[in-house]
TrEMBL record:
Highest taxon above the source species: Eukaryota
GO cellular component: extracellular region; host cell
Domain Crinkler effector protein N-terminal: 6-105
Region (Disordered): 921-940
Organism: Entomortierella parvispora
Keywords, ordered alphabetically: Secreted
Pfam families: Crinkler
Stated name of the protein: Crinkler effector protein N-terminal domain-containing protein
Record bears the keyword Secreted: yes
Length: 940
């Protein structure tokens, strides 16, 4: 047997509680000693691992209530293990479940905690405070009390989450600890729906909860993990899924959020007793906070032990225990928060008697072992998984008490109250293999990093990232949103499913994605609001309300869920403690970059590496991407959500007036355009995705612009644009933009790429040129005149080139339109692409005028007749249309998106943005006025 992972159940002589050690069979017995020492670091304190003696045994694990201390002499069949041997020499296969395989014997001269009597004062202190704890337990849980009646009903399954009072039945509801959330709310809480089924947006991505549980299982000696991501990215849903599958505790550091308020109670108690918790003695402050944290864990274990003692293990499983903790006040308004009630009672007893931290740790770990043994007695596994200790909204605690605590007794490094709380949570067991503390929030500070970098022996290797879950993919395609709605419908009756699809039709799904894509929560919250309202016409208003609530600049701060408010909060936080953020990026500088980048290029903005300050400000997301140079993966800070751009623009407009006016002038009249091209067309690509990708072309796109009347004959003859006919399949099949699916914006275009290269790549080479991926959009050079943007549409089996001209003017006249139409006509396109005909099926190509404000035009008539349609097409191989000869005249099929119909094809925010910044066109874009129609020509 070679390199097989074994789980060996071990026990220290004179102790009764076994512990597991995972180790490869190819390792030596000497290495096994080291792993045992790590797992029992407190029990074996002062003992060198090499001085331990290991004995191989096979002792069936006795029932929980019958277990006694293991004494080596009572097992004559024990075999001493040679440190030089391999584990496989003794264990050829995995030992049976619930069987002790190793007895660990200390050297004769070593201290034996289990057999050495405690000092009288310590022993008496343990007994005295344990008596207090038992009295508190009896007060709350003796038969007939309100808490006892409530917990019994809950454990027996008689109480369930209340249903939302809305038109779709069977959806759970829960509320936060904020007075602004009514218990009578009709809004469902979809994050609590089927928590045992991890939410997965695509088949190719692993849910964060699955990644985290796999990592916890893989690194048994690691006792801490952190979920770090932007507000609303899905962190809470992930830990809810974890706790629905694994026993643990859920705590929340926010004053008005989910779960019990016991963490808030703890910090409020510290503020009320500054001489004990916020004194000049920073080391003592930390030890006292650790003691309070131990009291909090004891209170949670007290409630859990009582629930477990009631039986009904087929009903009261870890998922039900999770719901109890996440929504403690949702089941019985007479008992709104059992956990805080019990904790307050224990905290009063602690302040009255002030037992030492050592006493509290002993009592805590004893109760933890009892709970662990109880769970293992009805678990199908030989031992239960690690118990999770989740601290949600941890970043709120990192803002408190900074300067009153230090990282260690011998360190002067200042820390927040979060540091001693984490140390207190890690006191729940003497073995790191028994538990895992999971902090969860929008910030990651030195309190967490210190533990992450020091525990588990991973150090700073890439495997460290497996203990920092940062990749929350969110919504990346409209199909993911549609799948979510479908999955939601599959859990309902047929009648409720029909109502759901009426409330959220296909158009609503598309609008949800294109306006709220990105992080998890905005779309889910909007779906909840639509369901709660119950009107089939409400979805547009709900989406608009969500966007406005997130992006508008509020009259008063702070406003929950508003991005401008979050940015303001973070800026104030930096100004109050500049030393803490001296190495962070300048938030305002990033905001300015983002606004310009979005306006000029229309593409996501990315910062290489992690920028926690941008994540905590709710402005950016962290994404893990492939990178060979970074051991396979790299974490970047990405700003790519449409509502974030809008919020940034609104914030800049109000908070940075000088830059705002500068930006508007640059946007309106850029005298020296960059080598990559113009401004407005760089805003266009994501709008084109919205308008054309996976959409059917609409008749209203193909209107006819009003002709210009020239005061004198133009130097260049104007070609005849009409009449034209259309192939029917343009409107009967969905169009897709070639090269967009799966494309990552690593580069916008290659300076050496020609239009011929671009066409050949997308028509014949799978969107590649050599070893490089070719972008979905191409930007021709400024000279000779021609289109601003080029892309390719696949419609049915055909590929059509699309040539785009953009114009952003105060007013657009027929002469402007004629000039724009010429730039996307074959007469000028052939200056860039002489063999244009080779890419035009049936001799047809598409042109698009994307302009603002509005063109004078008339709708094209005859869609219901025969004259507007092509005759039966000539087809070639694979039933595709034949291509025109190089010298054969081609036909331009002109599309127009302007101020009159823009709202039907692009997000409303685009129209708002263009309305606010439209101005005069750049001089560099203007043709000689003598060569074109007058700005205000006579039209006869």
């Amino acid at each position: 047997m070679t390199n097989k992972l074994l789980t060996l159940l071990c026990v220290v002589e004179t102790e009764s509680t076994p512990f597991p050690v995972e180790i490869n069979s190819s390792a030596s017995i000497g290495i096994l000693k080291n792993e045992i020492k790590k797992a029992k670091s407190i029990a074996l304190a002062g003992v060198d691992a090499n001085m331990l003696t290991l004995w191989s045994v096979s002792i069936p694990l006795a029932p929980l209530k019958e277990r006694k201390p293991i004494v080596l002499n009572e097992w004559g069949s024990a075999t001493e293990l040679d440190p030089a041997d391999d584990i496989s020499d003794e264990f050829k296969a995995q030992p049976p479940k619930k069987t002790i395989s190793i007895i660990v014997q200390r050297p004769v001269q070593a201290p034996v905690p289990a057999r050495t009597p405690s000092p009288p004062s310590l022993e008496q202190g343990i007994e005295a405070f344990n008596t207090q704890l038992e009295r508190i337990k009896d007060e709350f849980f003796q038969p007939g009390t309100a808490v006892s009646n409530f917990t019994r009903s809950f454990v027996q399954g008689e109480l369930s989450l209340p249903e939302a009072d809305c038109c779709v039945k069977g959806l759970p509801k829960a509320w936060l600890r904020s007075s602004s959330f009514s218990h009578q709310s009709s809004r469902p809480a979809l994050y609590l729906l089927h928590p045992t089924r991890p939410h997965q947006t695509t088949d190719s991505t692993t849910p964060p909860s699955v990644t985290a549980l796999d990592s916890i299982k893989k690194f048994q000696n690691n006792d801490m993990m952190t979920f770090f991501g932007v507000s609303g990215c899905g962190k809470t849903r992930a830990v809810v899924e974890m706790l629905a599958q694994t026993w643990g505790f859920y705590m929340n550091g926010s004053q008005a959020d989910r779960g019990s308020k016991d963490i808030t109670t703890m910090f409020e108690s510290a503020l009320e007793m500054p001489e004990r918790y916020l004194s000049s003695d920073k080391v003592r402050n930390g030890l006292n906070i650790q003691a309070m944290t131990c009291c909090l864990l004891i209170s949670r274990l007290m409630v859990l032990q009582h629930c477990l003692s009631l039986g009904h293990h087929d009903i009261f499983a870890c998922d039900r225990w999770m719901l109890f903790q996440v929504c403690p006040g949702a089941f019985d308004t007479a008992v709104p928060d059992v956990f805080d009630m019990v904790f307050r009672a224990i905290l009063r007893a602690y302040h009255d008697r002030t037992p030492s931290l050592s006493i509290l740790k002993i009592l805590l770990q004893d109760r933890f072992r009892q709970a662990q043994d109880h769970i293992s007695s009805f678990s199908s596994d030989s031992l239960p998984n690690k118990l999770l200790v989740v601290l949600d909204e941890a970043q709120t605690l990192s803002d408190h008490g900074r300067g009153y605590f230090v990282s260690r007794a011998d360190s002067g490094d200042p820390r927040s109250v979060l540091s001693p709380i984490i140390r207190g949570l890690r006191s729940i067991s003497a073995s790191e293999q028994d538990y895992c503390v999971v902090t969860c929030g929008t910030g990651i500070g030195p309190d967490e990093l210190e533990v992450l970098l020091s525990s588990g022996g991973i150090g700073s290797s890439w495997e460290q990232v497996n203990r920092r879950i940062v990749d929350f993919p969110g919504w990346e395609t409209v199909e993911q949103v549609a799948t979510y709605i479908n999955n939601l419908g599959d859990t309902m009756s047929e009648d409720d499913k029909a109502v759901l699809y009426e409330l959220i039709p296909e158009k609503a799904v598309q609008e949800l994605f294109f306006r709220l894509r990105g992080r998890f929560r905005p779309i889910i919250s909007t779906i909840e609001e639509i369901i709660a309202n119950g009107s089939i016409s409400y979805w547009r208003e709900a989406i608009e309300r969500r966007v406005q609530s997130m992006t508008s600049y509020p009259e008063h701060f702070p406003v929950r869920g508003n991005l401008c408010s979050d940015i303001k909060r973070m800026l104030d936080k930096v100004s109050k403690d500049p030393a803490k953020f001296k190495d962070a990026v300048d938030i305002m500088h990033v905001l300015r970059q983002t606004v310009v980048f979005r306006a000029s290029l229309g593409l996501p903005w990315s910062l290489q590496g992690e920028e926690p300050i941008m994540v905590e400000s709710a402005f950016a997301r962290l994404r893990v991407t492939a990178d060979r140079a970074a051991m396979g993966r790299r974490v970047d800070t990405v700003i790519d959500e449409p509502f974030v751009f809008r919020a940034a623009y609104n914030f800049i407009q109000r908070e940075d007036e000088g830059f705002y006016h500068f930006f508007r002038e640059q946007y309106r009249d850029l005298q020296d355009p960059s080598p990559e091209g113009k401004i407005f067309e760089r805003h266009t690509p994501l709008d084109l995705i919205y308008a054309f990708h996976n959409k059917r072309l609409k008749h209203e796109l193909f209107s006819i612009p009003k002709p210009a009347v020239h005061l004198k004959p133009p130097k260049v003859p104007i070609p005849t644009f009409e009449p034209v006919t259309f192939p029917k399949h343009l409107f009967t099949h969905r169009a897709t933009i070639i090269g967009w699916e799966g494309y990552e914006w690593r580069a916008r275009h290659n300076n050496t790429l020609t239009m011929y290269d671009f066409m050949e790549a997308h028509y014949r080479n799978g969107s590649r040129k050599g070893d490089y991926e070719v972008p979905p959009f191409y930007y021709p050079g400024l000279s000779p005149s021609g289109p601003d943007i080029v892309f390719v549409l696949r419609i049915n089996k055909e590929l059509y080139p699309v040539f785009v001209q953009t114009k952003l003017l105060k007013g657009i006249y027929p002469g402007d339109v004629e000039d724009a139409r010429l730039n996307v006509h074959e007469s000028r396109i052939k200056d860039h692409l002489p063999n244009l005909a080779a890419y035009c099926p049936g001799g047809k190509y598409l042109s698009l005028l994307y302009v603002h404000p509005t063109i004078k035009k008339t709708p094209r008539m005859g869609w219901d007749g025969d004259s507007i349609w092509d005759s039966e097409p000539v087809t070639g191989a694979n039933d595709r249309h034949g291509f025109a000869e190089v010298d054969e005249p081609l036909k331009q099929l002109l599309m127009i998106i302007d101020g009159s119909n823009m709202g039907n094809f692009v997000p409303r925010g685009v129209v708002d943005l263009l309305d606010s910044v439209k101005g005069t066109k750049r001089v560099s874009d203007q043709s000689d006025l003598s060569d074109r129609a007058e700005q205000k020509p006579h039209t006869g």
